[in-house]
Amino acid sequence: MRPLLRPATLGFVLLALASSAVPGRAAPPEKKPLAVEDLYRFDAPRDPALAPDGKSLVYVRQWIDAKTRTDRSSLWRVDGDPKNAKPTEKDEPDARAPVFSPDGKWIAFLSTRKRPDGWKQTPPAPPQSDPALDVWLIPAAGGAAVPLAGKDKPYGRVFNDGFYGRLTFSPDGTKLAFVADDGRDPRTVAERSNSVRIARDDQGEGYTGWGAAQVWVAHLEPNAERAAAKVDRLTDDDVWYGDPNWHPDGKTLAVHANRTADRESARFSINKNFDIWLIDVETKKAAQLTTGPGPEVSPRFSPDGKKLACLSVPRKGAHRDAFNLAVIDLSGPKPAFAPLFDHHAEAKGEPPHGVPAFPLPTDCWDGHARLLVNVEAGVATRAQLIDIATGKAGDLPAAKGAAPDLDPRTLTGRVALRSRLTPPGNDFLKERAIGKQQVIGWKSDEFTIDGILTLPPEGVAKAPYKLVVHPHGGPHSRSTLGFDFTVQLFAAHGYAVFQPNFRGSSGYGQKFVDADRGDFGGGDMRDIMAGVDKLIADGVADKDHLLVYGTSYGGFMTTWLVGQTTRFRAAVAQNAVTDLNMMWGLSDLQSWTEWEFGGKPWEQSEKYRKHSPLTYADKVKTPTLILHARDDRRCPLPMGQAYHQALKARGVPTGLVIYPDEGHGIRQPRHREDVLRRVLEWFAQHDTK
User: Fold this and answer.
1) Is the separation of the CB atoms in 483 and 12 below 8 Å?
2) Do the Cβ atoms of 464 and 537 come closer than 8 Å?
3) 3 state SS for 228-287
4) Helix/strand/coil percentages in the chain, nearest 5
5) For burial by CB atoms within 10 Å, which of 64, 133, 310, 598 has the most?
6) What is the 3-state secondary structure of 354-421?
7) What residues make up the domain containing 651?
8) Is residue 489 domain-shared with residue 604, that is, in the same domain?
9) Of 487, 669, 685, the residue nearest 569 (C-alpha)
């Protein structure tokens, strides 16, 4: 139940470069606070792909079309100077996830664009699911894009989800591996003719209507109509395979897959028995490489193919456990699997490196001895180079102030070149007054807790401020530093925003993750309220003007808080978990409740009742607005409806807004705008002097 990734983080560093008055020059124009309408001004690069020679880069321009209020993505190119970036195609048709061929002559990418008339089209996907994509190739030197496969392509929708989907060229550039379903309609003749639907297992949230993720390899011989002479299917079963990685010899692919019968949605919940498998491209035979009880994911071959790095969890536990970084030695008679450090073991001093973030970077091997890994460190994420012999971490050379390596043949050179060639985004933010962030810490029980405090821009409001408590989802997620439009919009309206990383949050080690197990609404609530009390005692927050807004588990905490205390003047809960029995019975993630409370509803009925916010609806006096996506499979709509009905029956000021064609993350720009306006209006209406 991870929250949506934050938009528009690129360009945020520019905000620190404040202008100062210079004698003889006109004063810079006064910066304006953010407004809801600014949602439609975000325009930033993402997914930069560096050419093999390091002289050029392509990236995805992502923005919102203000006229149609729809998300847009297109492919742009940089040659030398980021200021001269330009689109690769006229009218900027849809493009995502670019990757260069090894010789730099071709760029493969994904797109929703229509295939030629008369050709087999990509099957559509419902709007609340991932978009239905296909693979296209475009000459790096310029020219028309062509679809990967010809008229009668053998596959359906291509995955691009960060877990299953990945485009990857073979080392010699003659083949392209990708992950797609087969595009078949699973319904029987009787289902179609009688307009009924039989329930079938799938991967849940984000994958409604999709078939199993299968591995395909295209043999490239581009011409004016298509890029591949043929496309081979390497897997043909109901297993979902993901994240293909080529062995340097070009004969084998490594993938991760859960080939057991115990499966669930994997996008935000990697707690099942995924293993690394090697697939022979010629024979299509799969060999199991790992045998751990939990997930082994993100396979990455070393440059010489003698080792393979991956992420590993030594148990089937919480849906967001701490990963270990592991290396598999393939040079001996049998593969030798070894974690560099066990973050699940009892701590004995400071770990040699941080907890790795999922996934491993696709380009992570620094020669044969070190790995580039993003690690979770409290409210921050930082890159570390980890020595595979000792497990010890070091910073990138650029982080130490040294002159950057700009050799595209080295990992550090490629990192520096990608940074140098990627243009900044969201220039309009330089004209906006942005609230200052700071990390604060406090004690709660035996824990030291920290969180992020964002204050209103200077001149917008004075301390003590009205305070919006904004708990994150998960609960095994975390709040991190960086630009967040929702938080900054609240600050622009005069609110201080408090984002606590209560016990159960990731980024603080496995013991802290486990500290919330079986105690939702207990210790985590105490952590939050202790932080609120500190802000009041420090003169930052006004005790008479406390508000709360959260999504997913943040919605659980919102509905829980108003059932336990009357200190909040108004509350908004979005896609909230309000009843654990319904969560188990209706969600795509039964393991979430089963792990956290030690069993199924009939096995732990008292725990499910005791820790459900709906149980305490008779205690609620706080005006509480419920926002819920109609097609959310992670935290289904009936939980929002039931909580709203309970408050309505008791005469508590409430409302229920349902967003059609939306899943667990409310993504459509017009709906995002509506959410922001309603939250601000609800707070203004019920938090009066």
Assistant:
1) yes
2) no
3) EEEEEECCCCCCCEEEEEECCCCCEEEEEECCCCCCCCCCCCCCCCCEEEEEECCCCCEE
4) 20, 30, 50
5) 310
6) CEECCCCCCCCEECCCEEEEEEEECCEEEEEEEECCCCCEECCHHHHCCCCCCCCCCHHHHHHHHHHH
7) 427-686
8) yes
9) 685
Give the chain's residues under pLDDT 50: 1-27
Question: Do 387 and 480 sit in the same domain of this protein?
Answer: no
Tell me if 306 sits within 8 A of 320, measured CB to CB. Answer: no
Could you give the CA distance from residue 593 to residue 261 in angstroms, rounded to a whole number? Answer: 19
Name the nearest CA neighbour of 640 among 619, 664, 661, 676: 664
Together in a domain, 444 and 492? yes
Between the CA atoms of 546, 453, 480 and 514, what dihedral angle is there, to the nearest 10 degrees?
A: -60
**655, β-bridge pairs:** 625
The pair of three-digit structure tokens given for residue 255, joined into one six-digit string: 């993938």
The 3-class SS string of 275-300 reads EEEEEECCCCCEEECCCCCCCEEEEE
Residue 246, token pair as written in the block:
């080529």
DSSP assigned state of 133: B
Around Cβ 83, how many Cβ atoms within 10 Å? 8
Decide the pairing of beta strands 465-469 and 541-551. parallel
The CA–CA distances, whole Å, from 212 to 270, 282, 596, 629, 659 equal 17, 22, 28, 25, 28
Residues 562 and 488 in one domain: yes
How would you classify the pairing of strands 541-551 and 495-501? unpaired
Question: CB burial class (10 A; 0-12, 13-18, 19+) of residue 76?
Answer: buried
If asked whether residues 649 and 516 sit together in one domain, one would say: yes
Same domain (yes/no): 382, 531: no
| The pair of three-digit structure tokens given for residue 43, joined into one six-digit string | 């325009």
Residue 267: the pLDDT is: 86
User: What are φ and ψ of residue 547, in 5° steps?
Assistant: -135, 160
Closest CA to 574 of 589, 559, 592: 559
How far apart (Å, rounded) are the C-alpha atoms in residues 180 and 563? 45
Domain contains 663: yes
Number of residues in the chain: 689
Q: Which residue has the tokens 């050179």?
A: 413
Q: Are 484 and 472 a contacting pair, CB within 8 Å?
A: no
Asked whether 95 and 62 are in contact (CB, 8 A), the reply is no
Question: Are 592 and 608 in contact, with CB atoms under 8 Å apart?
Answer: no
Q: State the Cα–Cα distance between residues 327 and 311, nearest whole angstrom.
A: 9
Q: Enumerate the β-bridge partners of residue 451.
A: 440, 500
Residue 479: what residue type?
S
DSSP assigned state of 622: S
Instruction: Return the residue matching tokens 């390091």.
Output: 54
pLDDT at 28: 55
CB 252 within 8 A of CB 287: no
Whether 529 maps to a domain, the answer reads: yes
Q: How far apart are CA 611 and CA 581, in angstroms?
A: 10
Tell me whether residue 106 is in a domain: no
**Residues β-bridged to residue 324:** 312
pLDDT at 14: 28
- Which of these, 547, 554, 549, lies nearest to 569 by C-alpha position? 547
Contact 547, 567 (CB under 8 A): no
SS3 227: coil
* CB neighbourhood size of 137 (10 A): 22
Tokens of 47: 């997914």
Counting the structural domains of the chain, the total is 2
**What number of H helices and E strands is found in the chain?**
11, 35
> Are 361 and 312 within one domain?
yes
For residue 664, give the nearest of 63, 81, 69, 3 by alpha carbon.
3
Specify the amino acid at residue 648. Answer: K
Spatial CA neighbour of 466 closest among 454, 483, 478: 454
Q: Is residue 378 located within the same domain as residue 433? A: no
Q: 660 φ, ψ to 5°?
A: -70, 155
